[in-house]
From TrEMBL:
Keywords: Membrane, Transmembrane, Transmembrane helix. The keyword Transmembrane helix applies. This is Type II secretion system protein. The chain crosses the membrane at residues 12-33.
Length: 110
């Protein structure tokens, strides 16, 4: 017959401490990931860059009147002619972040 060895069991206090440590680590990691995702979403400029590309296309094909002002989501977009360049500028209303694209007026896509 097999003799069973006595195994030491964890006390209730040790179990509670381990549970609290796991919960605290989970909470800290959740807050960290949340702040990273918020920063990524806040700094995402893909939509406004796509809109500026559309405006460049329209200006090349003479579908826009210059000077041009527009609002796109939380961005204020303006197009001005300086010398022989068209300057596309987008400024975020809340963060004042600016995106600037310069395009020669006689650009034909080549």
């Amino acid at each position: 017959m097999v003799v069973l060895k006595k195994i030491k069991a964890a006390t209730l206090m040790e179990t509670l401490v381990a549970t609290v440590l796991i919960v605290v680590i989970f909470m800290v990691s959740t807050f960290l990931l949340n702040s990273l995702f918020n920063a990524t979403v806040k700094n995402n400029t893909n939509a406004v860059r796509t809109h500026i590309s559309e405006l460049v296309y329209l200006s090349v094909h003479d579908k826009l009147t210059i000077p041009y002002d527009d609002e796109f989501e939380n961005w204020y977009i303006s197009i001005e002619k300086v010398d022989k360049k068209l300057i596309f500028e987008a400024q975020h209303k809340e963060t004042n972040k600016t995106i600037r694209v310069e395009q020669y007026e006689n650009y034909n896509g080549q």
